[in-house]
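Incident log, support desk, overnight shift.

02:14 A customer reports that sequence design results differ from what the structure should imply. Their input is reproduced verbatim below. On-call engineer (initials T.W.) acknowledged and began investigating.
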């Protein structure tokens, strides 16, 4: 029997000794106001037990982590149509890179770089009567938690400085890969990225990807085949130009956000979320990655 609780406590202790905690994202001004020393982990071992250490009940900005959740809702609504508009290849470039989109005629490499997530946001704007409420409702359903909400200040802050995302959305529009207005789609995209959640809530939300599409309440939201595919994209594209490094160090499908969160999972076994706000140069949580590397090494649980 693995003693998960003491492994997580050990990791927290080891991580607290690391001096270089990375740098908090500042291109969204509102994200600067975060305590760099915060650190939390929450683990759900399927059909078994839950464990939390540190600040696992503090809400933070989920940012790109939500790209997996909007994708799940889009495939649940539109199934295969999604893949005509977004590819499933790693980009090997930063999350907000523009050049590839022009060269590849407005088809984003994958749904987790900003261009791909903006196409997914466009699909949800078309599919949902009220996208902002519909997406929040989906998150509250899969977590069985009505307390989850957007952070309107973060969304407004990103809108004020989201020049690259405006450039991406306009480029998509010029190639005919954005059906709705640029402003409407980006207003929804900034809102989705502002979703504030704790490590515990993120782990609960991602449970369905480890559990063949069924959420914690045992309700089926996506098929097991859709869950398999989304996990594959998390493995190959979840960390942008650091996806190879994450697979090498940690060996799990996962997704990061510039709020400093990372969620990772081993299908049928566990879901784990980590939060440490300081980022490395690729925009992924520096200590979050280290903590997950320690976790899969100590438990010897990874997909490899
Ligand atoms: O669009 C953006 O730039 C942010 N809302 C999300 C970027 C992000 O989280 C990248 N992940 N590491």
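02:41 Re-run completed on a clean worker. Output:
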């Amino acid at each position: 029997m693995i003693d998960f609780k003491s492994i997580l406590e050990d990791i927290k202790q080891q991580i607290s000794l690391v001096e270089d905690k990375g740098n908090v994202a500042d291109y969204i001004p509102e994200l600067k106001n975060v305590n760099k020393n915060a650190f939390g982990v929450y683990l759900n071992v399927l059909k078994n037990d839950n464990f939390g250490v540190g600040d696992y009940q503090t809400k933070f900005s989920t940012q790109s982590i939500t790209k997996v959740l909007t994708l799940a809702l889009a495939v649940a609504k539109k199934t295969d149509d999604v893949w005509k508009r977004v590819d499933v290849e790693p980009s090997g470039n930063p999350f907000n890179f523009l050049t590839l989109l022009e060269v590849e005629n407005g088809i984003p490499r994958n749904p987790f770089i900003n261009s791909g997530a903006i196409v997914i946001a466009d699909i949800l704007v078309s599919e949902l009567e009220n996208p902002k409420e519909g997406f929040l409702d989906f998150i509250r359903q899969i977590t069985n938690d009505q307390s989850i909400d957007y952070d309107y200040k973060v969304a407004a802050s990103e809108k004020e400085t989201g020049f690259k995302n405006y450039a991406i959305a306009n480029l998509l529009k010029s190639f005919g890969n954005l059906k709705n207005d640029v402003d409407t789609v980006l207003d929804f995209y900034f809102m989705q990225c502002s979703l504030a959640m704790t490590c515990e809530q993120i782990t609960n939300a991602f449970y369905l990807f480890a559990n063949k599409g069924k959420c914690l309440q045992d309700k089926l939201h996506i098929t097991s085949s859709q869950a398999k595919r989304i996990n594959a994209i998390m493995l190959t594209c979840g960390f942008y130009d650091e996806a190879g490094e994450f697979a090498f160090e940690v060996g799990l499908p996962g997704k990061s956000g510039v709020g400093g969160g990372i969620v990772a999972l081993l299908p049928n076994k566990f879901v784990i979320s980590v939060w440490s706000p300081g980022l490395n140069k690729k925009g992924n949580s520096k200590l979050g990655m280290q903590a997950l590397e320690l976790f899969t090494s100590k438990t010897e649980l990874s997909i490899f």
